[in-house]
Model the fold of this input.
Amino acid sequence: MAQHPHLKLVNPESLMPPIGFAHACVARGSRIVFLAGQVSSDKEGNILHRNDLVKQFDLALENMRICIEEAGGTMDQITKLTYYVINVADYLAKRKELGVVYRKYFGRHFPAMTLVGVTGLYNDGALIEIDGFAVLE
Done:
């Protein structure tokens, strides 16, 4: 995916070169969408894929895609993502598999991102929760 025309990614040369993320994102649009944390839940709120981080990541991003499209936007309009994970070491060990899933939803669009290790999430059985912001035209 090409960079959305209403977003300008900022990657200063004086900082570490970003690989798979942007240091900052300037929103040129007029509407901001705040995306609540998404987990690998079905319509009834049941956590699926309880022991599979990659499948949970996929379903959490699918739930996020549904939210952003319902708000009138697309995944390439997301400007910030925060990943909350129960096991950072597991996340790092599965970076390649997670990257394949990420590109399914975002292509080469890399908004500003943060990874946070946590001791628990609201939904029992969730290994990852993802929230974010998007700027719509």
